[in-house]
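User: For this week's homework, look closely at the record that follows, marking any run of repeated tokens, and judge whether sequence predicts the tokens.
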Amino acid sequence: MNRVYVPKDSTAQSLGADEVAAAFSAQGFEVIRTGSRGLFWLEPLVEIETAAGRFGYGPVGAADVEGLIAADIENAGSHPLAIGLIEEHPYLKSQQRLTFKRMGVVDPASLSDYLAHGGYAGLRAALSMTGGEIVQTVTDSGLRGRGGAAFPTGIKWKTVLDQAVTEKYVTCNADEGDSGTFADRLIMEGDPFTLIEGMTIAGIAVGATQGFIYCRVEYPESIAALRIAIAAAKAGGYLGADVCGSGKRFELDVRVAAGAYVCGEETSMLQSIEGKRGEVRVRPPLPAIEGLFGKPTIVNNVMSLASVPVILEKGAAHYRDFGMGRSRGTIALQLAGNLKRGGLVERAFGVTLREILYDYGGGSASGRPIKAVQVGGPLGAYVPESQFDTPLDYEAFAAIGALVGHGGIVAFDDTADMAALARYAFEFCAYESCGKCTPCRIGSTRGANVIDNLLAGNQPERQKALLGELCETLLHGSLCGLGGMTPFPVQSAMKHFPDEFEPRKRH
């Protein structure tokens, strides 16, 4: 019997992948559980190992297994669910997978599988370099933070490296709470060794001996996968007191978040890891100088750290050759909302929203025109159809008042109520606020009230002026990005869809 590959990530599991795997196993097949390829509309996606390569079928249910076997899938037999050689699928073939090159390919629990597919080549290269050389390589690659602010990763690492203390930390912010985002989860569930390797390189680079992955409690599969991979890496000598026989120490643990969106902000995350209430710290000092337990700390998100191994393996120039302007390398774009083909797309910076929405997303699932997309999470700006040709680039998006953020793209068709969506931004902020600063704590609740008054026709011009002033107060007076970014969806919705903010007749 041939090998059958069935995803084990949360999306595939929710669609019945465990039952599909059990059905193949009962028929005597060797079943390998992998991460997802990111073609969510085809999950559970089953791949059979053939002489020509992995041949795909999907979406497969447990009831389809006997029919697939009868169709001679071991020899890529014809079947209504047949997709063809998976590597040739247009959705995958046109991508530029650097960080996600092993996604859906390897068994995430197998260190030997990771090594067989090029794993730890980056760490081996790093161990032959000084800390300064590693940091310079990351700097030269042009890698910027994939969490929202897009701060150059190398500069952050250099600041930690330059601190003349012996105790330092590396932290990974895996509290992926933005709506429409799932790239971090796909890495943790499908290729956790990549993240572990990236964090180990970071620790070796700046002289940190302890790392923490702060993973959201809503990701139990990610937490389990990380802990299995950490144990395997330690047993294999890739973590611990003597990393790869180098004499250098790096330990790694997982900390489980308590479900607060605000802990996606770096200083709130540090508070939570320390066992304190998750609320924003006033800066300065920056975490790179006084971070976790008052020590210099690297704070990066999953995608930033998972991009590091390929940079060290292939060199800074290889990574920098992808992208445009000051946005170098690739970005993981997550397609969600009203789209026919939701999933993950890794492309070099510079691809346009229109290409992503139609060439990959296939247009709206409803068949109606796409009216707007929200990029960068629940506090990202709404981008109208007239701006869909904007390239995915940090500076290009900033020029239109939007942000790339974590790369989440949520599409809405022409039935969407933009005023209601703007109001939701205030509701979301009010619910998730840590309460430390007044603009966020009070302004979010007040904003929802102002929109209600505006739509009810209660002195609409005054309400519009008040809404503008309130947004400016949140933007400039909040301690962190939760309050500071809440105006983005509100202001963009009012700018691009002003007619929807006119008073409405009561029914």
Q: What stands out?
A: The two ends are 65 Å apart (CA to CA). The longest strand covers residues 330-337.
